[in-house]
Amino acid sequence: MFTLPLLATILRETFSSQQSRRIPEPDLIMDNPAKVEAFRQAGSEHGILSSVYLFHCAQISEVIKPGDTVLDLGCGPCNQLGVIARHNPDVNFIGVDLSDEMLARAEEHLRKEKLSNVTLRKDDITRLDSLADKSVDAVYSTVVLHHLPTEADLEAAFAQTSRVLREDGGLYLVDFAHLKSEKSIQYFAYRDQFEQPELFTLDYLYSLRAAFPLTSFSRDYQRHLKNRGHLYAFKPMPYMVAIKSAPRRNFDPALTARLRETQKSLKSKHHADLKNIMMLFRLSGLKSPYLS
Ligand SMILES: C[S@@+](CC[C@H](N)C(=O)[O-])C[C@H]1O[C@@H](n2cnc3c(N)ncnc32)[C@H](O)[C@@H]1O
Hints:
Layout: H1 4-15, H2 33-42, H3 50-63, E1 69-73, H4 79-87, E2 92-97, H5 100-112, E3 118-122, E4 136-142, H6 151-164, E5 165-176, H7 182-190, H8 198-210, H9 214-225, E6 230-233, E7 240-244, H10 253-265, H11 268-283
Parallel strand pairs: 1-2, 1-4, 2-3, 4-5
Antiparallel strand pairs: 5-7, 6-7
Helix pairs in contact: 2-8, 3-4, 3-10, 3-11, 6-9, 7-8
Bound molecules: S-adenosylmethionine (SAM).
């Protein structure tokens, strides 16, 4: 259920006449070892990000299918990619990132998890030099785009996504969108401050400040990805925005069972977090048929 502070934040964003300024991330790519470690810990099996990871995994699982080659833009330490690859063992994944530190953590994580359906590449998501036109069956990206320094880079990432994705390919791009008020940004960043490392809280604060406005997502979506999927955002408070294609596989009972098993294993706090994320996205029209 929505808490009073969350409802107050939605009301503030709905009626505020402010428009806080975008402040690009201090670390454009993430290669500070302490910050990388804080992010890796938050994304570990029962870490604070476990509910978010399961939510995105369920969304992405709908737009990919066995035999696909799927590109993850900005895979980071592969905690999110690891969850998706484990639930989709018949799919091949390519994770790209520009940070050597992240790629080293990612390799370690994949080895530990014994995941053989993932390969890693160093590449820039605004260029994707290592990928040919229409060479992948699906592209996804989770909370990466706000790391891009400029509006031109955001547009370049959308254009590259369209270039490497084959016709009728699957798509799921999700990121924060810019909130109007600094008070709302601080509400989300500090909400769970006592359950997460301080560096993670700061990283979250900088991410929300660096988020692109919904108008930028809408403009670049119209230019490059309009025919690839639908843009979902809860307009009164677009805390997150997603661009998602139509599902590419029939309802898959075995996959659903795997996802629901993982859902059951979440800690009760993370279970409640998952319900909140599902509700916030449902307000934007994005449903989660694979989760209960
Ligand atoms: C917040 S992490 C997200 C990692 C992962 N997608 C997840 O959801 O856990 C953002 C990642 O994007 C990477 N990144 C930022 N700019 C990039 C660029 N231009 N090309 C490739 N990777 C980039 C950073 O190095 C970092 O690993």
